[in-house]
Amino acid sequence: MRILVTGAGGQLGSELIDVLAQDEVHGLDHGALDISDREAVFAAVDRVRPSWIINAAAFNEVDAAEGAPEQAFQVNASGAGYLAEAAVRAGAEMVHISTDYVFDGRKGAPYTELDHANPLSAYGRSKYEGELQVLNSQASACVLRTAWLYGRYGKNFVKAILAAAEGGGPLKVVADQVGSPTWTRHLARAISDLIRTPARGLFHVANSGACSRFEFAQAIVDGRVDVLPITSSEARRPAPRPANSALVSDRWTAAGLRPLPDWRMALAEFLREQGSPTP
Predict the structure, then answer these.
(1) How far apart are CA 59 and CA 239, in angstroms?
(2) pTM exceeds 0.70, yes or no
(3) Sheet holding 2-6, edge to edge
(4) Residue partners of 173: CB distance under 8 A and separation at least 6
(5) What is the pLDDT of residues 32-58, one digit of tens each?
(6) Distance CA 34, CA 45 (A)
(7) What is the pLDDT of residues 92-141, one digit of tens each?
(8) Is the Cβ–Cβ distance between 79 and 130 less than 8 Å?
(9) 244: which strand partners?
(10) Would you say domain 2-156+181-208+245-261 falls under CATH 2.60.40.10?
(11) Exposure of 1 by Cβ count < 10 A (0-12 exposed, 13-18 middle, 19+ buried)?
(12) What span, in angstroms and rounded, lies between the C-alpha atoms of 218 and 30?
C-alpha cells in the first residue's frame, strides 16, 4: 500500500515509519507539511496519491494549548478536517489519532466508544473537534483514541521519569490521574493491522489495564528511587486533566482485531529494548 504519514517526526509517526516498512510509506514531518495549511495539505496528497493517510500530526503540548487555543484548534481540528477533505478528493482512506483527553474523567470506570465526550482542556476540546471533522466528513476513516503514549522516539513520560531517576529520588508524581499507558510500537502495529481490514469508525486502542501516573512511575523505576504521591493541585499544571480517562474498546475486538497487551508487559518489553532495568 502507498501510505502518507503526517507528523512523521513525532513519537507515533516515527514508529509508524518503522512498522510499515513493508509498504510504500511517505512520511512528512511538520517541517515538510503543516497540516493547518489547507492548500499545502491538498498539494501533498495530490503529489503522493496515497491509498491511506495516517494523521499522527498534532499540537500535543497540553499545557501550552491553554495559552494558545487557536493554534491548537488550527492543527488538531482544522488540520484533521483538511486531511479528511483531501482524502475524499484523492479517493484515499484515513486514520486519525485522537486522545483519552476528550473525556472529563468523572465516569469512575474505563471509557468505551459509546461514552459521551466532555473535554476539560483546550487540548481536549481541539482533539474532539478534530474527531468530529473526520467522522462527519465523507472520508472512509478510522478515528483512534489512545492514551499516555511512550516509545523510543521523542519526549514522553517514561523517558522523563528515567532521566529524573538518574538524578536520584525522591520523585513526586501525581496519584489522582488514572489512564492507560500505551507503547507506540504496539499502537503502530495495531494501525498496520487495522488498515488491512474493512473496519471503519471510532475505536479505542490502548494497552490494556490502567494505572495512576504514580503507579506508572513506580513501575518504571522499579524501586531504584523513591516515588512519592502528590495531587494534581500540588502539581500546579495550567491545563486540567481528567481524573480517570482509562480506555477500553468494545468495537476493536468486535471487529476481529487483536487487543493490545497489558500495559505492564508492554513497559517491561520497552525497558528491555532500551537496556533499562525492567520491572
Answers:
(1) 14
(2) yes
(3) 24-28, 2-6, 52-55, 93-99, 140-146, 201-204
(4) 161, 213, 214, 216, 217, 227, 228, 229, 230
(5) 999 999 999 999 999 999 999 999 999
(6) 13
(7) 999 999 999 999 999 999 999 999 999 999 999 999 999 999 999 999 99
(8) yes
(9) 178
(10) no
(11) middle
(12) 34
Catalytically annotated residues: 123
Query: How far apart, in whole angstroms, are the C-alpha atoms of residue 204 and residue 142?
Result: 10
3-state secondary structure the chain: CEEEEECCCCHHHHHHHHHCCCCEEEEECCCCCCCCCHHHHHHHHHHHCCCEEEECCCCCCHHHHHHCHHHHHHHHHHHHHHHHHHHHHHCCEEEEEEEHHHCCCCCCCCECCCCCCCCCCHHHHHHHHHHHHHHCCCCEEEEEEECCEECCCCCCHHHHHHHHHHCCCCEEEECCCEECCEEHHHHHHHHHHHCCCCCCEEEECCCECCEEHHHHHHHHHCCCCCEEEECHHHHCCCCCCCCECCECCHHHHHCCCCCCCEHHHHHHHHHHHCCCCCC
Chain centroid offset of residue 141 CA = 16
Is residue 111 within 8 Å of 245, Cβ to Cβ?
Answer: yes
Which residue from 186, 242, 191 is spatially nearest to 213, judged by alpha carbons? 242
Whether the Cβ atoms of residue 205 and residue 190 lie closer than 8 Å to each other? yes
Residue 7 grid cell: 507528523
CB 194 within 8 A of CB 253: no
Q: Choose among 7, 90, 88, 91: nearest CA to 55.
A: 7
> Kind of pairing, strands 182-183 and 149-150?
parallel
> In this structure, what is the dihedral angle of CA atoms 231, 73, 145, 264, given to the nearest 10 degrees?
-40
Rounded Cα distance, 148 and 101, in Å: 10
Given this model, what pLDDT does residue 98 score? Answer: 98
